[in-house]
């Protein structure tokens, strides 16, 4: 992070551009002020990437500087257009400004205005749906399956608005928890980095962090393992569920598909257990093994990991023909996780 922030002042414009691209993916609020300053970069395509990054990270401090950029007729239209789209993602109070751009003399700006209003509409729709779910919970009404399937229907357009809700310090905890559950249902890997940031934030509400942990479990990306293990050692996490965070004993991911070396393992169940206070992870599951020229067969799955060290995997058919054993060790990036099936 510090190296990326330093690169924002690098004399090489390509280095500055790449630093902004990387910061955009981190969703870290510490980058906001340096990025706002970078809106003054001498190269327009760096400024344009900065405007895009500010819209993705989602900090309200960026609204006023972005409005200034958008209203500046001397600014490059590419930069102004990205500022408009960013404002559509960030603010529900900028609609009049965005609508006014639909009458702009320049067709490029009219096109950007249309895209920005689409972002605004998605932002508004997501916040409205979250608010509706919140009201039902507060009124102790039953929630139907459609409440969260709505986010799935909206698809990738719901990702950034939900992340913004989850990261907004002004949102109440129930609203954030609803956003976390919705992100888990969507199962989009773009939510990974911001979710890990929230999980690691000891100032965040414990219930929010628990729902974030569940969301990470549904995403099924093992790059979250070390952050999840850190929860096991977190003394501040001892105040809920009678002193035990729900994910501490185990969490279940009922839905995943594992693929490696021409084989596919379809899980009926996957249990991920953490040893309390020890940097060790064990995963076990049952399901169906297929591929490699073998008939599909019932199988068991075992995975162990010491973060920062080695990862080992065994998949075996039941009963076990020797040729079907798979052994592997290496990076967790070898694992491909498919979307969650219906329970």
Q: Judging from the principal axes of the Cα atoms, what is the shape?
A: globular
Mean pLDDT: 76
Largest sheet: 7 strands, antiparallel
Radius of gyration: 23 Å
Can you lay out the helices and strands and say which pair or pack?
Elements: H1 2-7, H2 13-26, H3 32-38, H4 44-57, H5 63-71, H6 77-90, H7 95-100, H8 107-138, H9 146-154, H10 159-167, H11 173-186, H12 192-200, H13 206-219, H14 225-232, E1 250-252, E2 257-260, E3 263-274, E4 281-291, E5 294-305, E6 311-317, E7 326-329
Antiparallel strand pairs: 1-3, 2-3, 3-4, 4-5, 5-6, 6-7
Helix pairs in contact: 2-4, 3-4, 4-6, 5-6, 6-8, 8-9, 8-10, 8-11, 9-11, 10-11, 11-13, 12-13
Question: What does this 3D model show about the protein?
Answer:
By secondary structure, this protein is of the alpha+beta class. Strands 1, 2, 3, 4, 5, 6 and 7 form a seven-stranded antiparallel beta sheet that branches. Helices cover 48% and strands 15% of the residues. The protein has three domains: 121 residues, Alpha Horseshoe (Leucine-rich Repeat Variant), CATH 1.25.10; 121 residues, Alpha Horseshoe (Leucine-rich Repeat Variant), CATH 1.25.10.10; 83 residues, no CATH class. It is globular and about 70 Å long.
Task: List the keywords.
343 residues, Leucine-rich Repeat Variant, 7-stranded antiparallel sheet, 14 helices, 7 strands, 48% helix, disordered C terminus
